[in-house]
TrEMBL record:
Signal peptide region: 1-18
Domain DUF4399: 49-139
Record lineage: Bacteria, Pseudomonadati, Pseudomonadota, Betaproteobacteria, Burkholderiales
Name the UniProt record assigns to this protein: DUF4399 domain-containing protein
Domain of life from the UniProt record: Bacteria
InterPro entries in the record: DUF4399 (IPR025512)
One Pfam family it belongs to: DUF4399
UniProt KW Signal keyword: yes
Source species: Telluria mixta
Keywords from the named record: Signal
Length: 139
């Protein structure tokens, strides 16, 4: 009895990582509005990154509503597969409050940027909703 109760509480309290991914809304289109692919930006200054999204809504983490999600900016890394929880580290920036732009600082050199939408649990949609990966150069 005690083991069954503990297992039930464990399942309720902890998020389910094996749950089915949320279905992607049809025709959802995610893009980086700024900077542009191939852009050269100055080092030592924050870089403004503007997120664009069509045919889908933005909602904060934890808000489960059909055809909505929130942005994740990937820096110098590849997008996760559909149905995968997006990590939270220096290469995977979460915007769980529903933000649609940010500023970042990058060291000099070439860098890739890509947006990926996550659902209310930071899990990628199926199929994955992601922008084209762009390359910028910081000088």
């Amino acid at each position: 009895m005690r083991t069954r109760l503990a297992a039930l509480l464990f399942a309720i309290i902890l998020p389910s990582h094996g749950a089915e991914p949320a279905p992607a809304p049809p025709n959802a289109y995610l893009y980086i509005g700024w900077p542009n692919d191939g852009q050269v930006v100055s080092s030592g200054k924050p870089i403004r990154v503007w997120f664009g999204l069509r045919n889908m809504g933005v909602a904060p983490k934890g808000v489960k509503f059909p055809n909505t999600g929130h942005h994740h900016l990937l820096i110098d890394t590849d997008a996760p597969e559909p149905g995968v929880e997006i990590p939270n580290d220096r290469n995977h920036l979460h915007f769980g409050a529903g933000e649609t732009e940010t500023t970042i600082e990058l060291p000099p050199g070439r860098h890739t940027l890509q947006l990926v939408m996550g659902d209310d649990r930071h899990v990628t949609f199926d199929p994955s909703i992601q922008s084209k990966k762009i390359t910028i150069t910081v000088k």
